[in-house]
Design a protein that fits this description.
The chain is α+β, with helices and mostly antiparallel strands. 26% of the residues lie in helices and 37% in strands. The two termini are 22 Å apart. The chain is elongated, with a radius of gyration of 14 Å. The protein has a five-stranded antiparallel beta sheet with strand order 3-2-1-4-5, with helices on one face. The longest helix has 21 residues. Strand 2 and strand 3 form a beta hairpin.
Length: 82
């Protein structure tokens, strides 16, 4: 099963030289992780779908916030089971 997780780009890291691979810091609902943004054209504040550490698609804020809300509900339900 493949899952795409919504995240907000909060920082774009530049190596100072032209590079094929671009990195960014993304917020996954309060958890920050480094992601690869080589496949998408994004700016700080944009929302993306992340799969296996790669941003694979940009999405609008309303769609991202709804998806984040659903993920949080799933996590809470899962924690209630344990």
């Amino acid at each position: 099963m493949c899952l795409g997780i919504p995240a907000k780009v909060v920082e774009i890291r530049s190596s100072g030289e032209e590079s094929v691979r671009r990195k960014a810091k993304a917020d996954f609902g309060g958890v920050a992780r480094e992601i690869d943004i080589s496949l998408v054209d994004v700016n700080i504040g944009d929302y993306v779908i992340v799969h296996a550490g790669f941003a694979i698609e940009t999405i609008d804020e309303a769609e991202a916030l709804e998806a984040i809300k659903l993920w949080q509900e799933l996590i809470e339900k899962y924690e209630d089971l344990g």
